[in-house]
Design goal:
The chain is mainly α. The protein has one domain. It has eight helices and no strands.
Amino acid sequence: MTLTEAQYRSALIGLVLAGAALRLTGLNWDEGRGLHPDEGNLVRAALTLGIEGRLIPDFHAYNDLALWLPRLLSAPFCAAADAGCLTHAARLLSALMSVAAIPLAAGLARQMAGPVAGIAAAAAFAGSAPLVQWAHFGTTESALVLIVTALWFVAVRWQSGQIGDRAAALWSGG
């Protein structure tokens, strides 16, 4: 089976939209009960952070970026002590990172095995139950999937000679 570029793009857009719908629907699934223990720990720790207050959290089970990123992104929309709003912002961030991994996985598979493999990877990522579930929590799993997929993408491009050593080092974070 072969795909034209237009067919590939159409299929990829459809899969990304389907994946986004699965991830963005029902982000308040627990109605504010905070049923995920890691999410609760992250939100409580992030609530202690503030530009005018504490800059370094007491909670170090995760890196500070996992605390600061949702805190800063929620600042224009959430009151300083609103755990529910911060939780929703963290879940939205997690869902968006999960959606971003779909076309990246497609691009990776396409480079390695062609356009049909790219669409298969996009379908697998878009409909993966664990990836959809993790996207509904304000935790680090979606970010980790995105980062690992991006690093794999960079490694394949470097190995195939599409990018040089400096670009690979830069894109890999050093």
